[in-house]
Amino acid sequence: MASCRREPVAAPVVVQPYKRPPIIDFHSHLSLDGLDRIRTIMADSGIERMINLSGGSGRRGPEQWQAAQELSRLLGGKISNFAIPNWRGLGETGWGDREAAALEMAVKDYGFQGLKIPKGLGLGYADERDQLVAPDDPRLNLLWDKAGELGIPVSIHVADPRAFWWPLSEKNERWDELGVHPYWAYGPIHPQLLATFAPQVQEMVMQRPTVASWATLLQQSENLFRHHPKTTFVAVHFGNCGEDLNYVSGVLERNPNVYIDMAARVGEFGRHPPDKVRAFFVRWQDRIVFGTDIGIGSDGLMLGSNGAEEPTMKDVKPFYDAHFRYLETEQKAIAHPSPIQGRWTVDAAGLPGEVLDKLYRKNAEKLLNRQLLLAEAAGRKPASLTVPLPLADDRLPAWALSGAATPITN
User: Fold this and answer.
1) Which of 98, 209, 305, 403 shows a CA-CA span of 20 to 30 A to 190?
2) Does the residue 308 lie in any domain?
3) For residue range 265-302, what is the model confidence (pLDDT) as tens digits?
4) Own/partner long-range contacts of 272-277 (Cβ < 8 Å, ≥24 apart)
5) Is residue 385 assigned to a domain?
6) Residue 12 has pLDDT above 70, yes or no
């Protein structure tokens, strides 16, 4: 007689939707006069803390530091400020001692929690001989050592997107951005194109300094990381090289003192296949922080970058939502957060929840924990300085090799 016993039916698997934690935006630029806007933006998009990379320098005394400190106070301590060096006098005797002392004052007296190095290092800051100073210049060593001694991270911007070195024309993939700001470009500009810009813009283009190549600047930044293993660096804008995931992965592998943020580069790394991006984030899930490069003032906004039309408050929440859509879903052919940086779509990465938790919050908390950074630094071994560094891919696109009339380069 056949058995009438029924096999137990497995309970259906219920997939819980991802619950996003209160977010730390590790890359913002804020001013005190933007207080009301900042408060609204943080509330609307679930941002619990913003890292203000524009805390200012001590160039005119402590006024900028006091304003940054006041901004944090008025927002209940939800703003963490990073100081910026005073680059005036760079290369002169005593500059390193002066800026190391200023950084210590910013941290100990004004509550600053990090150091920000703008892209002017390597692209614009000159010494007493009017020579551009490279990121790995040893005259800056006292500053890096002081940051390591204090247990604070150094968020550093080196170079710019690779296309900024390509010839400037409507064929350049960053034309929407560079066509508005041609003085941001480092590549050649044809005289006929230059003549179409306003006279003051032409003058700014003509005054551009001759800079090192994209790949050289990246190599100089890695020299810096390797020479200072006890200092924790955050290589902003996806390691300053969202175009080349393999290169950035190598930087992280070779340099345990380096983290990256993803600010204003979803459009770059998002062009890679989503499974490759997902694998990258999973592998380096403990070393990546969320950031947007949002700028907030009373009379201006920046959402990663700006073009001809300035964004308004109604554009801000969609800007954040575009980040969340890319990171949390598997949607295809979606707009990236800053279309001004390139008119293409990206396929979302669909990251696991545990990776998102670290990206949105946990890794940032670690970087703001001075005692933890000091403990990590103490355990690092000195880096080997003899292994040659591979360069990121620095090839020109085919359209730039077709030949043209003599351009101007400075």
Assistant:
1) 305
2) yes
3) 999 999 999 999 999 999 999 999 999 999 999 989 99
4) 272/245, 273/347, 274/330, 274/347, 274/348, 274/349, 274/350, 276/245, 277/245, 277/349
5) no
6) no
For the entire predicted model, the pTM comes to 0.94
| CATH number of the domain where residue 150 is located | 3.20.20.140
Strands 47-52 and 258-261 turn out to be unpaired
> Could you give the CA distance from residue 346 to residue 269 in angstroms, rounded to a whole number?
9
Which of left, alpha, beta for 187 (phi over 0: left; psi -120 to 50: alpha)?
beta
What is the total count of domains within the chain? 1
Q: What residues have CB less than 8 Å from 333, skipping those under 6 apart? A: 345, 346, 347
CA separation for the pair 225, 300 (Å, rounded): 34
- Give domain status of residue 408, yes or no: no
Per-residue pLDDT tens for 191-239? 999 999 999 999 999 999 999 999 999 999 999 999 999 999 999 999 9
d(C-alpha 139, C-alpha 66), whole Å? 28
Helix (H) or strand (E) holding 121: helix 120-123
What pLDDT band is residue 5 in, cutting at 50, 70 and 90?
low
Contact 77, 368 (CB under 8 A): no
> For the chain, how big is the Rg over CA atoms in Å?
23
Q: Which domain holds residue 368?
A: 23-376
pLDDT bucket at 15, cuts 50 / 70 / 90: low
- Ramachandran angles phi, psi of 310, nearest 5°: -80, 140
